[in-house]
Design a protein that fits this description.
The complex is a heterodimer of chains A (291) and B (288). Chain A has 291 residues and is mainly alpha-helical. Chain A is built from 13 helices and no strands. Chain B is built from 13 helices and no strands. The chains are: A mainly alpha (291), B mainly alpha (288).
Chain lengths: 291, 288
């Protein structure tokens, strides 16, 4: 009886070897390396010497980084709010009213299956004031339709957020809808009997019950906002000026174009700390919501 | 203190016709807004530049032409081949790796170690990829794989590991333990149980994982951009290059044909698979 058991243990080790090796080398190893590079003066090659926190001081004196962080704040706010509002509204509509739920869901969720590059390109065309959507609106004499969103330093980041929300609202909808489906439908009959309007039932009763799903959706939105890169590359490439530069793009530029590995690593490490902080808060919130 | 608060029961009256149809109207407006980019891509790709300048972006092409599509297909074909050569092996390998790892984690005996590894993978799923890129470039260069298709595949398999493992593990945990016991009593070892018992009953979950990985890897831009060489660039990277190199007036018909061509396969897979894709995204989202 001893031998097969031993063989099983060896097989198990064999099964786990690739994952353990990859996790240790790639996830843990490279992360530690990048964090330690952020304390060196490395330029194109990882051979700089130890300079302590100098790169971080430099980072926060770098105008492009400051602009990236400010833009990210605007993006996160607009993108998360818009995705949540639209996604939750769609989930409620589908939960309460829709027949052919599959058809509606397919329509609202398909942007999630397209690449950010494709999304960026088509939205760039839609938002072109002379041949895009606004030219149609201008035909109806709508005021403000001549505004070139993507050429405006103030508005461009919100245009990117709009394209991002078009992609993500369906994800919020799917997550919230699945949670709403888990609630006893009897509650609707009871509320109707009491003459409570439907919107009130959702706002006061049902949405608080699915707060776990809402937190999950928010967390996913925040994570994808922190990573957003391809969408800006395709839509504005950071412009006009630095109006749509974002931290993830900053790291890429300093790694591969400007050849300043030390500074890029400091920026990447800062991004990691931010994501870790958001995750910690999110997990605490989810644990709290479960009680 | 009355046990039941008294509630005034208002008689149910049917809502006004307009109010009754309001949700449907809202859904229709929403659907139109969501479908707009897809329609604009399709219509625009079949127009000539002259028609794009003169007609409205919303109108269907009055003189449909395939000229932009011919150009797009010619320009993107190498990218299409590369995307296939990257995506197919990456999807198969990462699903297999996820299944093997998830199985060992769920049914293995090294409980403590498995939990630790799982926690690390959960965290790794959230770490911005920029943190790994530079060392990964050096590592792949050291292996002689930088700039090759194999290097991009390896990158996708590694970065897909957290998602595939988490999904497969959560599926294996729901399998009845009697199934495993029965196989063991019949004398099947750890590997035999996996191959002959667990894997065959897990085909739906494998399909879900492969579906998610397929769309994710096909739509990837950053790994292809960083790790592929001039000869191995996937479609998304080529698409962005086509757009980046046009001078003067933007050839929107070519851009839309190229964009739709790039999006076609994942969209087809999405429309075809429907619920399965949603199921995968949901279990990934709730676990992660």
């Amino acid at each position: 009886m001893q031998r097969p058991a031993l063989r099983d243990r060896l097989t198990e080790c064999l099964f786990m070897t690739p994952a353990v090796a990859l996790t240790l080398i790639v996830f843990v190893g490279t992360m530690v390396w990048t964090v330690s590079l952020s304390f060196t003066s490395s330029r194109a090659l990882p051979i700089g010497h130890w300079v302590g926190g100098t790169q971080y001081v430099r980072l926060w004196h770098n105008a492009r980084w400051i602009a990236s962080v400010e833009n990210l704040a605007a993006y996160v706010l607009a993108y998360t709010l818009l995705s949540l509002v639209v996604g939750v509204a769609l989930a409620v509509l589908l939960d309460r009213y829709a027949r052919l739920e599959d058809v509606w869901r397919t329509i609202f969720f398909y942007p999630y299956a397209t690449s950010m590059i494709v999304a960026g390109l088509v939205w760039q065309w839609l938002l072109n004031p002379s041949v895009g959507l606004q030219s149609v609106l201008a035909g109806f004499g709508l005021p403000g339709s001549e505004i070139a969103w993507l050429a405006s330093p103030q508005l461009a980041i919100y245009a990117v957020a709009l394209a991002g929300a078009w992609q993500s609202a369906g994800l919020v909808m799917v997550i919230v809808l699945a949670a709403l489906k888990g609630i006893d439908p009897e509650i609707h009959r009871a509320a109707a009997l009491d003459g409570i309007p439907v919107w009130r039932v959702y706002v006061s009763l049902l949405l608080p019950q699915v707060r776990g799903a809402l937190i999950t959706a928010t967390l996913l939105l925040l994570m994808s906002a922190a990573k957003v890169y391809d969408l800006v590359v395709a839509m504005t490439n950071g412009g006009p000026g630095t109006a749509t530069e974002l931290p993830a793009k900053f790291v890429m530029a300093y790694l591969f174009v400007r050849q300043n590995v030390g500074l890029a690593s400091a920026a990447a490490t800062t991004l990691l700390l931010t994501v870790a902080a958001v995750l910690a808060v999110g997990w605490a919130a989810r644990r709290y919501a479960k009680r | 203190m009355s046990a039941i608060p008294s509630v005034a029961v208002t008689p149910l009256r049917p809502p006004a016709p307009l109010a009754r149809h309001l949700p449907l109207v809202a859904l229709l407006v929403g659907a139109a807004a969501f479908l707009l980019p897809l329609w604009v891509m399709l219509a625009g790709s079949l127009k000539s530049m002259e028609e794009i300048r003169q007609s409205s972006i919303l109108l269907p092409p009055l003189n449909p032409t395939l000229a932009a599509w011919r150009q797009a297909v010619a320009a993107l074909s190498p990218g299409l081949v590369n995307s296939l050569l990257i995506t197919v092996p990456s999807v198969l390998l990462s699903a297999l790796l996820g299944a093997v790892t998830g199985y060992a984690m769920t049914f293995g005996r090294f409980r403590w170690w498995n939990t630790q590894l799982f926690n690390v993978l959960m965290l790794a799923a959230f770490i911005p990829i920029q943190l790994f890129l530079y060392p990964a470039v050096l590592g792949l260069a050291w292996l002689g794989l930088f700039g090759s298709l194999a290097g991009v595949v390896l990158a996708h398999v590694v970065f897909g590991l957290p998602l595939t493992t988490i999904l497969m593990k959560s599926h294996f945990e729901q399998l009845p333990i009697e199934l495993i016991r029965a196989a063991q009593i019949d004398g099947a070892g750890f590997a035999r149980t996996f191959l002959s018992v667990v894997l065959p009953v897990s085909t739906p979950m494998c399909a879900v994982v492969m579906l998610l990985q397929f769309t994710g890897i096909w739509n990837d831009f950053i790994l292809g951009l960083v790790f592929a060489g001039p000869e191995s660039r996937p479609m998304t990277v080529q698409l962005n290059n086509i757009v980046g190199t046009t001078f003067g007036e933007r050839a929107y018909n070519l851009e839309m044909a190229s964009a739709l061509f790039t999006a076609a396969l994942p969209l087809a897979v999405y429309f075809y698979s429907g619920k399965l894709f949603v199921r995968g995204v949901l279990s990934g989202a709730v676990k992660g």
